[in-house]
Amino acid sequence: MLSYCCCQHYYWQCSVFIMCIFLQMIISSCQALSRESNPVVFFDITIDDKDAGRIIMELFTHIVSRTAENFRALCTGEMGFGYRRSIFHRIIPEFMCQGGDITNQDGTGGKSIYEGKFEDESFEVRHTGPGLLSMANRGRDTNNSQFFITLKKAEHLDCKHVAFGFVKDGMDVVRRIGELGAKDGKPTKTITISDCGQIM
C-alpha cells in the first residue's frame, strides 16, 4: 500500500513538473514575439457587477498591424465605439472565452474600425497554449470586433483564426471567466468589460 502511494505521489510530481515545463514553453513562445514597441492594453472585468480584476494584453503590431490596431482602437474607444460595457457572450471551459460583440452582445454582431469586415491578415502566430488573443469569425475574411482568449492549446484553429496578441498579466482573471461557461457556451454569470484602454 505504501509503495502504491509512493508511486502515485511520484507520478503526480512528474505530471506537475511536465505541466510547468509546458507552461514555461508557452510563456517563452509569447515572450519571443513580444516587442517593447507593441501596444499594451487592458480590460477591467466585472462578474455580476462585482470587480473581478484586470487583464493586461500585448498586441503584435509587428506581425498583424491592422488586426492589432483594430483591437487597440476598440479598447481606447477613440473611434466613438468600442469594448467598454460589452460582455463575454460565449465561454467554453478548458477551451476559450469569447467577447467583443459590441453591437448585439450575443455573438451575431460586431463592428470593426474599418467600416465593415476585414481580411485575415496573417496566420503566423499559432494557438500554442492559454492566454492567446485571436479573432472570432464566420469564415475567411469576416473579422470585426469579436475576439476570444484561449484557455488551452488550440492548434485546430491555426490558419483559420488570426492570433494577434497575448495576456501579459491577469491570466488568473481569464481562468476565472473560463470557469463560468458551459458546453453550449452560455455563461452562468454576466461577465462585463467595465472599462478598457491603452497602457503603453
Structure description:
InterPro entries: Cyclophilin-like_dom_sf, Cyclophilin-type_PPIase, Cyclophilin-type_PPIase_CS, Cyclophilin-type_PPIase_dom. This is Peptidyl-prolyl cis-trans isomerase. With about 200 residues, the chain is α+β, with helices and mostly antiparallel strands. The protein has 2 domains: about 1-35; about 35-200, Cyclophilin-like (Cyclophilin), CATH 2.40.100.10. The chain is about 25% helix and about 25% strand. The chain has helices spanning about 1-35, 65-75, 170-180, and strands at about 40-45, 50-60, 90, 95-100, 130-135, 145-150, 165-170, 190-200. An 8-stranded antiparallel beta sheet has the order 3-4-6-5-7-2-1-8. The chain is globular and about 35 Å long.
What's this entry about, in short?
This protein has helices spanning 2-33, 65-76, 171-178; strands at 40-47, 50-59, 88-92, 96-99, 132-135, 147-150, 163-169, 191-198.
